[in-house]
Amino acid sequence: MQPKTITAPTILVAGGTGYVGKNLIRRLVQSSYPVRCLSRKKRLKKGLFDSKVDVVHGDLLNSESLVKALHGIETAFYLAHSLDAKQDFEKKEYKAAKNFAEACKEAGTRRIIFLGALGNPQEGPLSPHLKSRKEVGNILRASGVQVIEFQASIILGSGSLSYEMIKTLSERLPIMIMPQWTNVKSQPICIQDVLDYLVKAVELKTRQNEIFEIGGPDQVSYKDLIAEYSRQRKLKRWLFPVPVLTPWLSSLWLSLVTPLYARVGRRLIESIKTPTVVHNDWARTVFPSIKPLGILKSIEFALGEKDVSLAHEPSGL
After folding, report:
1. Which of 49, 99, 157, 252 has the maximum number of C-beta atoms within 10 A of its C-beta?
2. How far apart are CA 58 and CA 68, in angstroms?
């Protein structure tokens, strides 16, 4: 008599067409997890996912459309955002998070894994983007479904919005003015390390809500990242500090240099005013096998990735 094959419960990924989501789905499939991707679009680009991935249509702003998507789901990833929304992106994010959380509760989902953002309001006022990320985590937890939240700063990988901004500025501008906000500290993390944390959270042995601050070993600024990227690409770049040039003025300048990421980039720049560093390294204790890379190896890894910066569907709502 043949032994029965035990199949793991299907995992849902909301925001699976974005940079982190696509890479996460690939990693989950490699780890033999059945995966379902929630997508606003009824038709996705051919070859976007492995044939094993079940793509279901659903809109986070329409709670009724989530019922079928979450049927039978025990673990759900929440990676969606609305940074590319033209207006009221915070309201859309809050409504989407509430709809998703309530649908998970109704479906009997046991765990939501959320990728949020670092940022301590005691170190300075949070930008609308960072405040929104914090509030989304609160909304998900208010549902009563267990939430494992990872808070990260800049994610380094070919396709990450922050990395693409650093890359584009470094590649296009031999001379750059460096406003004060480019000296604010962050704690970047390589995409591979982010994926390690997310995947390991699926089977994490805990029954309570958890918030893990994650980052690499280096605390650096955007100026440092631009300098290191340029060094590895062997680009001669001159960086000149200036005492003024607000994030708002910088965003106007950014829209001229990187129009593709203009709207999202402006919101990212607003977030740079506050340090995004790890204050609690509890994640290192809970996930001892993960040894995050520093910025040298992370940028080296990103440069070695296939150039997919324009190949991702938006992961917005």
Report:
1. 157
2. 8
Instruction: Please tell me the distance from the alpha carbon of residue 14 to that of residue 59, in angstroms, as a whole number.
Output: 10
Instruction: Give the chain's end-to-end CA distance (angstroms, integer).
Output: 48
DSSP string computed for 154-202: -EESBTBHHHHHHHHHHHH-SEEEE-GGGGS-B--EEHHHHHHHHHHHT
For 285-303, what is the mean pLDDT? Answer: 97
Q: What is the pTM of this model?
A: 0.90
Q: Is residue 242 part of a domain?
A: yes
- Where in the sequence is the domain holding 212, given as residue range(s)? 11-304
The tally of domains found in the chain comes to 1
Structure tokens at 206: 């805990």
Using CA of residue 157, residue 162, residue 164, residue 166, what is the dihedral sign? negative
Beta strands in 180-287 (DSSP E): 189-190, 210-214, 238-241
Residues 24 and 116: their CA atoms lie apart, in Å, by: 15
Hey, what amino acid is at 51? Answer: S
- Average pLDDT in the 176-185 region? 82
- Could you tell me the CATH number of the domain that includes residue 127? 3.40.50.720
Whether residue 60 is predicted with pLDDT greater than 50 in this model: the reply is yes
Looking only at the bridges linking them, the beta strands covering 175-178 and 238-241 are parallel
| Count of Cβ atoms closer than 10 Å to residue 197 Cβ | 22
Residue 41 pLDDT > 90: no
- The single residue listed with the structure tokens 């809109």 is 59
**Over pLDDT 90: what percentage of the chain?**
58
